[in-house]
Amino acid sequence: MSIGGGSEIPDGLRGVRASASASASGAAMEELLRIQNSRLREKLRKQSRTHSLLVSIVVVFALSWFPLNVLNIVLDVCDVAVSEVVLSLTELCLKPLKSKL
Asked: What distance in Å separates the CA atoms of residue 24 and residue 15, rounded to the nearest whole number?
């Protein structure tokens, strides 16, 4: 013990205190890394769900507007009367129903 009131660590206990401090900080570091890892996994899961929803919306939109765009391109390129195209598309759509009746 020192006269000035400071605390001295006996030589036999210095290693014990240092290793306890190191293991405590190691455990705290492991806990921090575990929490960060779980937060990162949750963030990636949410982003994956968002991306899949966005892709599905784009696919549905593209498939919905594709037939109309094809019809417009065909009407622009070919000099076909609109009534013939509408009649042929209607017949094409109703063919499966005629076979069931």
From this structure: 14
Q: Render the burial of 30-42: b for 16+ CB within 10 Å, e for the rest.
A: eeeeeeeeeeeee
Residue 18: phi and psi, rounded to 5, are -65, -40
Question: Rounded distance, CA 94 to CA 89, Å?
Answer: 9
pTM of the model: 0.43
CA dist 1 to 8, 9, 14, 69, Å?
6, 8, 14, 91
CA distance 46 to 33: 20
Q: How far apart are CA 71 and CA 82, in angstroms?
A: 10
For residue 79, the one-letter residue type is D
With both helix axes pointing from N to C terminus, report the angle between 11-77 and 82-100 in degrees, rounded to the nearest 10.
Answer: 110
- pLDDT tens, 9-63? 555 545 544 454 556 687 888 888 888 888 888 988 888 899 999 999 999 999 9
